[in-house]
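Troubleshooting entry. Yesterday's outputs looked truncated, so today I'm pasting the complete records for two proteins to confirm everything comes through intact. If either block looks cut off, that's the bug. Protein one:
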Amino acid sequence: MNFTRALFAKGFTVIAQTSGQRGFLTVTTAAKRSLFCNYRKVLAVPKNLTQYRSVHENTVSPIQIKKRVTRKKRNEEEDLAAQGFFNVTAFSTAEQYDLEALVVGLEEQNLYAAKKFFSTDNLGAEQDVLYVTAKYMVNGEARDIFFFREGSVVMWNFNELEANNVLSFLKPYEKDGYLKVLVKGESEIMPYTYIPEPIEIAEDTQPSKTQALFKNGKFFLSKGDQTFLEKYTFSNAMATSIKLGIWEATLERYIEGMEYLTEDLKKGRRIKIDRAQALRMTGELFALRHMINLSSDLLDTPDFYWDREQLETLYIQVCSYFSINRRTKVMNEKINHCVELAELISHNLNDKHHIRLEWMIIILIMVEVGFEILHHMERHYQSNEPQAMVPVAH
C-alpha cells in the first residue's frame, strides 16, 4: 500500500479494483507490471519537474487534477449600497486642465450645470476648482463633480459607465494627459453617506448641529449648507492622494529605466548613454521634485483651511488615511538617490568628455610639432644644397 501511495504521489495511474471492505485497494496483475515499469522510470526522472509533468501529463489521475473549489468573495460595494452608501471616485488624467474651455464645453453638452468656479488660495488670483452638478439625480441623490486645475477629477455618485463617459469628455481639455492604464490603476473609490438629522425632543430645545466625519474608511456628510464644503474637503484629499500616486508611478518607471545603468557601473562596463540623455534625466528628476515639494500641497495643509478648523481636521484625517506624508517622504528619499546616481553618471561622462578633449589637443599639438619638424628639415636641406655658379658678364 505504501508503494502504491508513493506511485500515486508521483502522478501515475493505477488500475485497481475495490475489495468488499471500504478503504482497501487491490492492484491487478496488469497494473503491477505497469507500476514496476513506471517505477523504473521514476528512478530516471529528471530534476526539471516541468519537463517531467509535460511528458507524463496524460497519465495523471483524475483525482489529482481535480481543482479546488474557489469560494466567491463578498461584494463589498453591494453590501455598502444596501446600507445606504454611495460611491465617490477620483481620477488624475493629466498634468493640467483648461477649466475655462471646460466650462464652455459643459454648457454645450447640457448634461451638467456649473455651480461654482472658485479659487482656493487667499489671494484669489486664479480659479483652480470647478464644481458642477448633473441635471438629473440617481436614487434620489445628487451627482456632483469637482474638477481640479492640476489634472484631477472627483465624481460623487457616478457609476463606472458614466465615469468613463466623463473621462472621455475630458480628453480635449487635458494638457499632457496620462496613459489610460495609469489613470485606471491610480484611481481611488470611497463610500459615503449622510448623517441622520437629530430629532428635536422638546419645543424649547435646539437640535445639535451635525458635523461631517471620517471613520473606518467611510465619509459621513451632514445635510445642510456645509455639504458642498465637506464634499470639496474630501475631494481635495482624494485628488492629492491620486496625484501623488501618479508621481509615484512615474518615479518607479524612471527607476526601472536606470537599472541597466547601475548594472553597467557595478560590472565596470561602458555606460551606454550620452551627456544629453544624462542631462535630460537629471532635468526630469528636478522637475518631479519641484512638483512634489513646491507646486503641490503635499508638505503642508492648504491655505483654504486656515480659518476652517473643522474642515482642516477632516482633510488631515483623510490625508493620514492615505499616508500622504509618509509617501511624500519616501518619494523624496528615492529622488535623492536617483539624483546622486544621475550626478555620478553625469560626472563620469564629463570626465570622459574632458579626457577626449585633452587627447584631441595632444594630437593637434603632435600634428603641429610634426609639421614644424618637416619645415625645419626642409629648411636644413635647402641650406646645405650647393649654390649654382652664375657667370659674371664683363
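Protein two, checking that the full record survives here as well:
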Amino acid sequence: MDHYSAHSSAHAAALETDSEKYLGMAPWPVSNLLKSTKRKAVSDYEAPRKRIKISEEEIHLRYDQIKRPNALKRRLRDESEKALSPEIGNVFSDDKLPRKRTRISEEETLPTKHQIQVKLDRFPKRESKSLFSPRSAWALAKSLFKTKYKQQDQLGEGGCGSVYGGYRRFDKLPVAIKHVPKKNVVWTDADENGRQLSTEVAAMLKLEIERDRSIGRSAPISLLDWYDLKKELILVLERPVPAVDLSKYIEKNKKPLDENQAKIIIKQLVHAAKHLEDNKIFHRDIKPQNILIETGSGMPRLRLIDFGLSCFTDQTSDGCFYGTERFVPAEWLSEGVYNAGPATVWQVGAVLYETLHKKEFNSVKFVKNKRTISKRLSRDCRSFLKRCLTKNSGCRPTLEKLQHHPWICENTGSVR
C-alpha cells in the first residue's frame, strides 16, 4: 500500500509539472495546421478529384479556349495550313484561304488562277445600288410622280397606251396621265443633256419653248411632266375641263354638224396642223378621236392630242404607215408611199367629212366611190372637201393654201 501511494504521489507531481509547461507554451498557428494537412477534406457525396500534371502549353491552350476563342480558331487554322502542302496556298491571290480544306492526292492537279477566275465569272454580279444606278433612278422617278400627282379613273385606252384622269396635288389642276409601255415607245437621238427621249416627248417639248405660258393657249395639248420608269413612260398632260373628243361631240349633237359649226372646228384644225408643219412635226394620226372640243364657252375650242405616232419631217421614212387604217391617204393605197404635207391635208378632209355626214369616213371606200360628198352642202364647202380628198397627192393643196380657201375665210365669228 505504501509503495502504491508513493507511486501515485510521484505521478501526480509529474502531471502537475507537465501541465504548467503546456500552459506556458505559445499557441500553434492554425495556418500551419492547415498546411500540414496532406489531403483536402471532401464532402460525403463528392469523390476526390484526381490530380494530373498540366504542361505550360496546355495551360495557354485552355486559356485561349475560354478567353480568346477567335484567336484559338485562327491559331488552329494556321497550324492546319502548315500541315498541308504549301502549293495549295499559292493558288489563291490573297492570304485568306477557304476554311474548309481537303487534301489533294499526288495524282490530282491543282487549279490554276485562270480556272478559278472562270468559275467566279459564272456567278452573276449584283447590280449596283448606288444613287446613280438605273434602279435607283426608276424608283426616284416613280416616287416623284406619286408625290406630285394623284391618278384616278381610266379615261381611255389605245394602241400605244392607256390614259387616266388625275390632278396635280398642290393646285388641283386637272391632268391626263398617259402610261406608255416601253415596247411601244419610238426613241429619238439623245438630247443636249445626253438623255434619250421618246418621239412623242421630243415633239411636244419642241412645241413648248415656254411651257407654262403655252398651257391652255395652243391647239396642241401641253406636256407638263414626263417620267422614265423601268417598263413604261409616264406622260402628264394638260386636261381641259369640260371637254369631249370630236366623235362624242358629234354624237351628242345627234346629227351631223351644220356647216358653220364644222367650219369653226376645221379652221382651228388647219391652223394647228400648219403650226406643226412649221415646226417640222408630222402628227400622222389626225382623226376625230384625237381632237378635243372644249365646251366650257359658247364657241367650241379645238385641242389636238395624242402625239404617240408623231415624227419629225426631216427623219427618213421606214416605208411603213403609222396611223388609223381608215384614214390612210390614197397615195399609200395605190403606191405604198406618203408624205407629211399631203397626208395631213387628206386627214383634215377626212375629219371634215365625218362632221358633215352620217356615215363614217373610210379611205378605201372613198377611193372606190362607195363614199361620196353630200350634195346638200354649199359649193365652197364641197370645193374644200374635194380638194382635200383629191386622190392624186400632187394635186392636193398645201395647208397654207387651205388657210386662204374661200370657205375657211368666210366670217363665222372669232374663236375665244
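Both blocks look complete. Sanity check on protein two: The mean pLDDT is 79.
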